[in-house]
Amino acid sequence: MFDIKVFDGMKTEEKYETMLSMLKSIVEDEEDIITNIANAAALINAIIGRVNWCGFYFIKNGELVLGPFQGMPACTRIKIGSGVCGSAVKDKKVMRIKDVHEFKGHIACDAASNSELVIPIIKNEKVYGVLDIDSEEVGRFTELEELYAEKCIELLSKYIDWEKLSK
């Protein structure tokens, strides 16, 4: 059973550390990839807070395809190199965008989004997809959210065979 109230009164970094332990406990004994990714999206969405969209895209047939997420319906396919997510894949780097309206080629899946954090999923030098987190607040994401989102992907990579999602 999940109770968000356990996070009441915690400092931000303490919440994020607890999020990592909860994520590990959710995925370490579950073998189903979709189940683990869906729970990861829900947990990250709930704990990071002040976000309007949180989810995953995976590379299939040379493009990003929507995976499990929390939020409004989203773009189902994104070309590699397009938008913030496609750029993160192409450049193999984290994209922390203060104001998406200033990002050339931004793809507005949810018109309410104003800032975005995208973490590429890379294992053994191969990119498998991205974790995408959006907020209605300009400048919502800091180095702290970036650090812990990266730690979430590192943790998931220990338990998920990303290769199975690219087929």
Briefly, what is this?
This protein is of the alpha+beta class and 167 residues long.
Structure notes:
It comes from Clostridium neuense. Residues 29-144 form the GAF domain. This is GAF domain-containing protein. Strand 1 (53-60) and strand 2 (63-71) form a beta hairpin. The model has no long low-confidence stretch (mean pLDDT 94). The chain has helices spanning 12-27, 33-48, 83-91, 143-159; strands spanning 53-60, 63-71, 77-79, 95-97, 115-123, 126-135. It has a single domain (4-166), classed as Beta-Lactamase (2-Layer Sandwich). The chain is an alpha+beta fold and 167 residues long. Helix content is 35%, strand content 25%.
Backbone shape: globular
Number of domains: 1
Structural class: alpha+beta
Mean pLDDT across residues: 94
The H/E string reads HHEEEHEEEH
Could you name the ranges where pLDDT drops below 50 across 5 or more consecutive residues?
A: none
Described by its quaternary structure, the protein is: single chain
Number of strands: 6
User: Can you say what the CATH homologous superfamily is?
Assistant: GAF domain
Using the 3D structure, state the CATH architecture: 2-Layer Sandwich
The major pleated sheet works out as: 6 strands, antiparallel
Strand content is 25-35%
Spatial gap, N to C terminus: 33 Å
CATH topology: Beta-Lactamase
| CATH classification class | Alpha Beta
Name the strands of the widest sheet in spatial order.
Answer: 3-2-1-6-5-4
- Rg for CA atoms: 15 Å
Helix fraction bin: 25-40%
Question: What's the total helix number?
Answer: 4
Family: Belongs to the free Met sulfoxide reductase family.
Domain GAF: 29-144
Protein name: GAF domain-containing protein
InterPro entries: FRMsr_CS, GAF, GAF-like_dom_sf, Phosphatase_reg/MetRdx
